[in-house]
Amino acid sequence: MIKAIIIEDEQPAALRLEKALKGIDPEIEILTIIDTVDLAIKWFENNPPPDLILLDIQLGDGLSFEIFNRSKIDSYIIFTTAFDKYAIRAFELNSIDYLLKPISEARLAKSLEKFKKFQSLGSNVNIQKLLDTLKIQNEKFKKRFVVAISGKIKVIETGEVAFFYSNEKNTFLCSFERRHYPLDFSLDHIQDMLDPELFFRVNRQYIVQYRSISGIDILSKSRIRITTNPPSEHEILVSSARTSEFRNWLDR
User: Fold this and answer.
1) Quick check: helix, strand or coil at residue 25?
2) Rounded to an integer, what distance in angstroms lies between the CA atom of residue 141 and that of residue 158?
3) At what angle do helices 105-121 and 11-24 cross, to 10 degrees?
4) What is the total count of domains within the chain?
5) Of 43, 165, 225, 238, which is most buried with the most CB atoms under 10 A?
6) Which of 191-198's residues contact partners 24+ apart within 8 Å by CB, and which partners?
7) Domain check: are 149 and 134 in the same one?
């Protein structure tokens, strides 16, 4: 019998994953569902590692990679991720599988087949090599923005930005402190600097951070309106071409 745990901070997604696993292999035993990094670390301190971990990368209290920095784990891991192909290649090279959200049952079944194959061969996973590779990947993203305002220089940490926007051919950021600062970069350039786990380009005028979204209204099948906190001066609509991708981004 396969003993597995699910680490996922969105309960509906965790329950769907549990149901899909049981549908594929009724003999899988789900030991627990954990929704934060801290709780996962505590669980591993008091329990033997399971055969299999299904692990969301972005949890409510941080990236799940921190779990491996604090706990010794040699379980097989299936990551649920939206990282780019460079990082995904790292998963493949280190005998670790990945699932892109939204997760299909067919893809999940293939991951379980791969797990059983590696388990029967006694293969080990190289977590440290994966973490080293992803560390290089994360260094690609911009950590802070330097802005000039009223003759002074101010540094804004990227995590403090609620959204970026363009207005009359100029580009600005709005911080969670409700302050607006001009930037020298175009939105296209900024988009390439940001972690796609946290930021999404909803239309030509706005890039929003996940934590800034306070409300989502479905206006029609292809029209979605976003409310942010702090609020934006103009209405933010997800472009019809990006509606499906936006839904997938939210469901990570």
Assistant:
1) coil
2) 9
3) 60
4) 2
5) 238
6) 193/141, 193/142, 194/141, 194/142, 194/158, 195/138, 195/141, 195/158, 196/82, 196/84, 196/249, 197/57, 197/58, 197/82, 197/83, 197/252, 198/58, 198/159
7) no
Q: Does 25 share its domain with 48?
A: yes
Q: The whole model's pTM is what?
A: 0.54
Do residues 172 and 147 lie in contact, with contact meaning Cβ atoms separated by under 8 Å?
no
d(CA 208, CA 226): 9
Residues 131 and 41 grouped into a single domain:
yes
pLDDT tier at 96, thresholds 50, 70, 90? low
Tokens at 212, concatenated: 């800034």
Domain containing residue 119: CATH number: 3.40.50.2300
The runs of H, that is alpha helices, within the chain are 11-24, 37-46, 66-70, 85-93, 105-121, 127-138, 187-193, 243-250
pLDDT in tens, 151-195: 888 999 998 999 999 998 899 999 999 999 999 889 998 988 898
The string over 198-233, giving b where at least 16 C-beta atoms fall within 10 Å of a residue's C-beta and e elsewhere, is bbbbbbebbbbbeebbeeeeeeeeeebebebeeebe
- Say whether both 117 and 190 belong to one domain: no
